[in-house]
Amino acid sequence: MTIISDIFYNIVDLLTYHADKPMLFSSGLFWALFLIFIPIYSSFRSSRLKMTLFVIFFSLFFYYKSSGLFFLLLVGTSLVDWLLSRLIVLIKWAWLKKFVVFLSIAISLSVLGYFKYANFFLWNWNAMVQGNFQLPDIILPVGISFYTFQSISYIVDVYRGTVKPTESWWDYLFFLSFFPSLVAGPIVRADYFLPQIRENRQASTPEVYAGLWLIIIGVVKKAIIADYISQYNDLIFDTPGSYTGFEALMGVIGYTMQIYCDFSGYSDMAIGIAAIMGFRLPPNFNMPYKSQSLTEFWRRWHISLSTWLRDYLYIPLGGNRKGIFRLYLNNFLTMAIGGLWHGAAWKFVFWGAMHGIGLIVNKMCRPFTSRFDGKIWFSIFSWAITLIFVSLLWVFFRAASWSDSCVIIASIFKDFSFDSISPFLHTRYLWVIMMSVIILSHCLSERWCDFISDLFVKSPWFFKFIVFIVVVQLVIELQSAEVAPFIYYQF
Q: Radius of gyration of the chain from Cα atoms?
């Protein structure tokens, strides 16, 4: 009986939320549960209602394991939005429709504002009035920014008439809580995803293998490359000023690649998991570090957020329809707000605002620089300037404070020595290899990426198994003491 009770206790403990051990796509527990989930899910495909309810149950459990009882907040948000969306189509008066839309958006932003920005505004108010009151201990629900944006876009699209409200609350809760994209995106639009729920299409064998390939690529990016190179990057950012300029530069370049591998790795896994289930999620990254301008960078980086900000903020502000000054102002405001979306700190506002200024400069210079389009030297120059600008701004994104950011950047320019290169290459050779892999991967064309994916899909099962075993072994060999959370979980 003792053995049975111990087993029962361990199972209950595994299925219970622990704040220090949130469920991650890169954790063994998730994949063990997913292997149980898939056959049950497949058996329910013949009944859309059973499939919907089962996926909702698993999604809410996944969110519970990621963020505890905050899964109830997600359920409440979905119910309020669904009721208000049904109300919008029933109302005949335009002004009342707008009022309901503003009410829904106000509720969503108020919940987000309380959990994410209350302490930010209270801290600033405290500093202005020189108060000494204690800030409340507010826990940020995982992924609240992502599903809030999905919620807002749904209500706005229903008001615009581009989306019909779902007949059942279940379908909307399915859309909002769909576990592959729930906690870190991609941000999914209702007009893109809701028809897939109604279609209830089963994935073909090639689609399942293509999804498996994306999962493998995501694991390589996140659990192998990002988690390993972060160990060195963290040394640079946690103790700024303690390293030479060259070592600081390597830390900055390292974080530039780390955040890409971490976030795009999550997106790859999310898209791959959804593909295995028969659902399509929008692409979120497209080799962003090969961009030759900031405009191109934001078309390749966090695509679902960039398009959301464009369609629901930039265009409603007037876009490029109100003259040059408004065009520049709208670019700046959109990026500054996008920076604030990333985090409740002035460093994120600065990061977004600088990207806004960069986009303005990019557009102002375009009439002059367009004459050099197609010239190799100008393409290389544009790429280098863009990458340097993006990388330096990542310092403010990652560093603990403004002063730490300045110390790291200053050390690069003031304390740079080529003498540090040889010992660095000798002691950090594996870090250099991993960095080289991800940099060289950006040199591959989309055609080559598709070719490699097709090669894996069409390969015999034993080859797929060997690739899988090699990746798992690399994860085991290179993993740190504990599974590192995804960077964008905090947003």
A: 24
Element at 2 (helix H, strand E): helix 2-14
**Tokens 């593909």 found at:** 275
For the segment 149-163, what is each residue's pLDDT rounded down to a tens digit? 999 999 999 999 899
The 10s digit of each residue's pLDDT in 44-84 is 988 889 999 999 999 999 999 888 888 999 999 999 999 99
From 342, 355, 426, 442, active-site residue = 342
Q: How far apart are the first and last CA of the chain?
A: 45
Helix (H, G, I), strand (E, B) or coil at 192: helix
Q: How far apart are CA 42 and CA 376, in angstroms?
A: 52
Is 342 tagged catalytic? yes
Residue 138 CA to residue 122 CA, distance in Å, equals: 12
SS3 content of the chain, % helix, strand, coil (to 5): 75, 0, 25
How big is the chain, counted in residues? Answer: 491
Q: Which tens digit of pLDDT belongs to each residue from 189-210?
A: 999 999 998 888 888 889 999 9
Give just the sign of the alpha carbon dihedral 143, 146, 151, 154: negative
Q: Is 20 exposed, middle or buried (0-12, 13-18, 19+ CB in 10 A)?
A: exposed
